[in-house]
């Protein structure tokens, strides 16, 4: 690459186009002035190209650098971390335009473009973005081609086409590398992109929290099962438990969370399943009751939930096994655990406390008390609604005795309160319930509107037992999902007009939605979540081994075979150029070069023939045989267009005869016969 | 120096000189360019990013670019392979001038883009060759000394399509161009050598420029200015007009007439005189030790004289 020389106009057009398409996916995350800044830089660079403006001086450039540092700081609140770094890089990418003088600078811009293309994948890994990224990739490669094209050419279509062809040719090797390249553990820890507000459960629950979440049609996670999918009403996805109540909201108990996880009886029946959860930015993951996992990134908690060691900042898939019939902590709760799960604030909700005392007196047995409580929800005129009446200071009192309109968290919170007031350890469980079966991929989709809260009560000898007061009020919620439960109200996804889930009744639309979801799920499962465990599974299935040495041999063989085939195809012998006579001429010339008797510049066939006759007197008949045929055919070809196949064969035969007759070494005496020939006045070879 | 000589010897064996050369795998060298090494560095950074962020799509992009690198290797090679180059001659020049060397590039099937032709210390020339077509180029090579000029090996290189690889070949296309001595302007010698005068007196009227004598059939080497174009246009064939030359005007040029000790300078003076006399239309003869060329006029006579000067004292078959 020559450092000298300017950037031709068409190359600049390529580079500007490449910048636009590379920057586009980043712009929604960034403040508005970033786009303005790009337009400013591009305009300036175009004016430079038109000789109207000049390159900025050192002072302007350093000021710009300070300004973009300030810009990043104000936009991100920090200068470190992934988001800030990527933003800084993007701004540098734009500024580089003003410093781009020669092809080498242009190359830096293109390479930076590849890098920024890659960073977009840290923030979004969906299929639409991945497909879109093919465009900037193509344009960047085409820009490289444009930089190499001769400056006189202005042929963007050709550049695009050759870029496309090369990328397509790269795909076979890409697949081999993607499947077989060993997936390594991170070399050092990095911070993941974060900060964006995400819908999902939060680590505390006040009245109306989950009701708000239930208005969102977003996907929370997908799960596929080993074997048949269990009935939806049994799928209680536990995310976390709330043991602290401050009079208004329920939250997790840090102290309990730090206790070691209790033993789990793993002798009964089990369900194996895989969950692929979206990025939540949180630690909790979703599992059915009695879950264990071998995933190194997960650990089992004191409350039998699973939790990720690092926050989920990207799509995360894991396998788990649940023992639904196993008793959780059946024998004894420690004093600390017991106290913590009985604790209530000193004041508030006096009516509920009083009622709890009454129930305690009526039912000495804990299980009976729980049944009575559930019966109360069942028999009193409670109403399941997404639009509950706002509650005042004594929220449980007002809900239980006055309004009686609520969503699952109202029922779960109030029930847990009453149980604790009656002296029975209890906690609220937050998670999701049910889901939607996608028959195409036979997996379960769980949306945010499947968010649910229910109660776990500790009974001596049975351990923690799940009870769901919502089931007493609105059994259709558990049997058929939220949509059926609030059908009369018409509040299902009432704000999400564009959500596909809202239009489940339209058959073809629903089909299309589920098909698209299946593609997405397979994408997450097979591509995004292709980590070393999946790789090993694949090797085991295909090669029957996970030994790297043996895999290496197989990989080398496959990659070698692909490369060899490609190379053979590309290096296949070329069809010879020109007419049969020209080819014969070239061949003879190359052969005679060894004897230093090759044709001289501008020498015609007759002159060459004469010279050869003198130099190689013994081969005279072969020489004449070839040249006579050569001259005859050349003129015949001039007259009739092209020679026949028969002619070609004859010429070939004569050529062969001549070459066979040639001596290995040049006859010594002939050296002086290589006379200088005048450079003009002779015929051009045909 | 020794390494360089070895390299040249190796090249000579590997790519023997020929007037026409078709590039194939034995004649093409290919290596990653600096831009290509930069590309690999970029890939290494991307790979570290993919590993640290455990991001399948970044892995994918990295592998795609790596595969692209591998593909580009072949495309770079194919941009050169199969081209045939033919030297189409050059014409003699005076030392110090740039000698124009004709080159014809033929490309079977594929189009070739951005081929750079260069010698060391010569501004490179970049050209494209259309598919199944040919491109003629005239390259210029500087000359310093008289005699036979054999240019160094021509470097043909390409970085197309992505600049990641540089593929090149070094070719000796057997260009062989005569370089005349650099002409030096000097006043013509006033006295003629006696020997020359004798010869002039004995000779019948030489062909001169002044008095029209008649026509004779064209012989190669006759000056174009003296062709009888009118007769030619009547279809009577090509004839040269013959002029009678007053004898005293023919001039002998002898190496001994030149002053100075530097042979090259003296040859340069002779060259200058020949050009002056040819332009003035005065016949001239050339006397060098061991060579006498009788006085005459015309382009072919001039070329013979200049050739003798160019090769004087040098081995004929350089």
Distance between the termini of chain A: 38 Å
Structural Rg of chain B: 29 Å
Number of domains of chain B: 3
Biggest sheet: strand arrangement of chain B: 2-11-10-6-7
Q: Given the C-alpha coordinates, what overall shape of chain B results?
A: elongated
Radius of gyration of chain A: 39 Å
Helix content of chain B: 25-40%
Give the uncertain stretches of chain B in residue-range form.
193-206
Can you describe this structure?
The complex is a heterodimer of chains A (686) and B (318). The longest helix of chain A has 25 residues. Chain A is of the alpha+beta class. Helices cover 49% and strands 11% of the residues of chain A. Chain B has 3 domains: 179 residues, no CATH class; 101 residues, no CATH class; 33 residues, no CATH class. Chain B contains 7 helices and 18 strands. In chain B, the strands form 5 sheets. A 5-stranded antiparallel beta sheet of chain B has the order 2-11-10-6-7. A 4-stranded antiparallel beta sheet of chain B has the order 1-3-5-8, with no helix packed on it. A 3-stranded mixed beta sheet of chain B has the order 4-12-9. In chain B, α2 runs antiparallel to α3. Chain B is elongated and about 95 Å long. Chain B starts with a helix and ends in a 7-residue tail after the last helix. Chains A and B meet through α5, α6, α7, α20 and α21 of A and α2, α3, β3 and β7 of B. Chain B: This is DUF58 domain-containing protein. Chain B: It comes from Pseudomonas neustonica. Chain B: Keywords: Membrane, Transmembrane, Transmembrane helix. Chain A: It comes from Pseudomonas neustonica.
């Amino acid at each position: 690459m020559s450092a000298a020389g300017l950037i031709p106009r068409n190359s600049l057009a390529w580079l500007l186009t490449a910048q636009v398409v590379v920057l586009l996916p980043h712009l929604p995350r960034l403040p508005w002035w970033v786009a303005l800044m790009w337009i400013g830089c591009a305009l300036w660079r175009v004016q430079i190209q038109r000789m109207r403006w000049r390159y900025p001086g050192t002072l302007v450039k350093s000021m710009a650098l300070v300004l973009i540092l300030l810009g990043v700081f104000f936009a991100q609140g920090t200068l470190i971390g992934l988001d800030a770094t990527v933003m800084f890089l993007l701004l540098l990418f734009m500024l580089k335009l003003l410093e781009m003088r020669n092809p080498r600078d242009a190359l830096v811009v293109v390479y930076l473009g590849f890098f920024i293309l890659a960073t977009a994948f840290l923030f979004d890994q969906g299929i639409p973005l991945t497909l879109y990224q093919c465009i900037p990739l193509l344009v960047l490669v085409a820009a490289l081609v444009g930089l190499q094209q001769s400056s006189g050419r202005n042929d963007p279509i050709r550049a695009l086409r050759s870029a496309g062809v090369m990328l397509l040719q790269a795909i076979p090797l890409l697949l081999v590398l993607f499947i077989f390249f060993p997936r390594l553990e991170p070399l050092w820890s990095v911070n993941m992109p974060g900060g964006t507000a995400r819908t999902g459960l939060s680590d505390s629950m006040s009245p109306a929290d989950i009701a708000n979440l239930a208005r969102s049609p977003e996907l929370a996670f997908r799960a596929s099962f080993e074997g048949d999918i269990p009935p939806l009403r049994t799928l209680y996805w536990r995310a976390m438990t709330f043991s602290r109540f401050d009079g208004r909201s329920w939250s997790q108990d840090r102290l309990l969370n730090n206790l070691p996880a209790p033993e789990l009886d793993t002798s009964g029946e089990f369900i194996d399943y895989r969950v692929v959860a979206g990025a939540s930015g949180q630690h909790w993951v979703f599992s059915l009751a009695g879950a264990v996992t071998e995933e190194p990134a997960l650990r089992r908690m004191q409350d039998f939930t699973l939790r990720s060691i690092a926050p989920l900042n990207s799509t995360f898939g894991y396998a788990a096994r649940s023992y639904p019939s196993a008793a959780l902590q059946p024998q004894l709760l420690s004093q600390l655990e017991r106290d913590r799960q009985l604790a209530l604030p000193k004041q508030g909700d006096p009516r509920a406390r009083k009622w709890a005392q009454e129930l305690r007196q009526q039912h000495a047995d804990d299980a009976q008390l729980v049944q009575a409580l559930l019966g109360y929800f069942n028999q009193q005129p409670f109403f399941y609604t997404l639009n509950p009446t706002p509650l005042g200071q004594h929220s449980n009192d007002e809900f239980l005795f006055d309004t009686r309109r609520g969503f699952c968290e109202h029922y779960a919170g109030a029930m847990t309160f009453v149980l604790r007031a009656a002296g029975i350890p209890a906690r609220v469980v937050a998670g999701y319930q049910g889901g939607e079966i996608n028959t195409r991929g036979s997996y379960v989709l769980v949306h945010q509107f499947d968010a649910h809260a229910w109660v776990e009560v500790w009974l001596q000898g049975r351990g923690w037992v799940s009870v769901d007061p919502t089931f007493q009020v609105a059994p259709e919620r558990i049997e058929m999902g939220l949509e059926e439960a609030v059908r009369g109200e018409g509040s299902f996804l009432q704000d999400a007009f564009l959500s596909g889930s809202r239009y489940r009744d339209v058959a073809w639309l629903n089909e299309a939605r589920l098909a698209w979801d299946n593609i997405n799920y397979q994408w997450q499962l097979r591509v995004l979540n292709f980590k070393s465990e999946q790789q090993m599974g694949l090797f085991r299935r295909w090669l029957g081994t996970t030994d790297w040495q043996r895999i290496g041999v197989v990989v080398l063989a496959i990659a070698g075979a692909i490369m060899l085939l490609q190379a053979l195809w590309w290096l296949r012998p070329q069809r010879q150029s020109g007419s049969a006579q020209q080819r014969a001429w070239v061949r003879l010339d190359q052969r005679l070069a060894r004897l230093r008797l090759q044709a001289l510049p501008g020498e015609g066939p007759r002159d060459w023939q004469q010279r050869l006759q003198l130099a190689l007197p013994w081969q005279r008949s072969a020489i004449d045989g070839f040249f006579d045929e050569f001259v005859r055919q050349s003129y015949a070809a001039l007259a009739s267009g092209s020679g026949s196949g028969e002619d070609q064969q004859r010429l070939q035969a004569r050529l062969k005869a001549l070459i066979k007759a040639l001596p290995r070494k040049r006859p010594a005496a002939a050296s002086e016969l290589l006379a200088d020939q005048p450079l003009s006045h002779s015929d051009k070879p045909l | 120096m020794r390494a360089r000589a070895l390299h040249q010897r190796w090249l000579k064996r590997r790519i023997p000189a020929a007037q026409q050369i078709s590039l194939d795998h034995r004649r093409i060298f290919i290596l990653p360019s600096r831009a290509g090494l930069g590309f690999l560095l970029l890939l290494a950074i991307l790979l570290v990013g993919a590993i640290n962020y455990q991001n399948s799509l970044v892995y994918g992009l990295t592998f795609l670019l790596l595969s692209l690198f591998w593909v580009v290797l072949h495309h770079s090679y194919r941009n050169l392979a199969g081209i045939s180059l033919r030297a189409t001659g050059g014409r003699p020049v005076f030392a110090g001038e740039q000698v124009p060397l004709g080159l014809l590039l033929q490309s079977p099937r594929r189009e070739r883009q951005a081929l750079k032709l260069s010698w060391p210390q010569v501004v490179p020339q970049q050209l494209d060759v259309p598919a199944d077509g040919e491109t003629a180029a005239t390259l210029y090579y500087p000359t310093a000394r008289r005699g036979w000029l054999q240019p160094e090996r021509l470097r043909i290189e390409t970085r197309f399509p992505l600049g990641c690889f540089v593929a090149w070949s070094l070719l000796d296309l057997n260009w062989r161009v005569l370089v005349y001595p650099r002409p030096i302007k000097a006043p013509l010698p006033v006295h003629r050598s006696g020997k020359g005068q004798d010869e002039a007196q004995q000779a019948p009227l030489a062909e001169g420029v002044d008095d029209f004598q008649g026509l004779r059939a064209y012989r190669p080497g006759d000056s174009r200015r003296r062709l009888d174009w009118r007769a030619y246009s009547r279809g009577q064939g090509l004839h040269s007009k013959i002029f009678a030359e007053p004898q005293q005007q023919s001039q002998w040029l002898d190496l001994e007439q030149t002053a100075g000790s530097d042979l090259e300078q003296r040859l340069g003076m002779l060259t200058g005189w020949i050009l002056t006399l040819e332009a003035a239309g005065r016949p001239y003869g050339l006397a060098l030790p061991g060579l006498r060329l009788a006085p005459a006029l015309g382009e072919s006579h001039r070329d013979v004289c200049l050739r003798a000067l160019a090769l004087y004292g040098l081995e004929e078959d350089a």
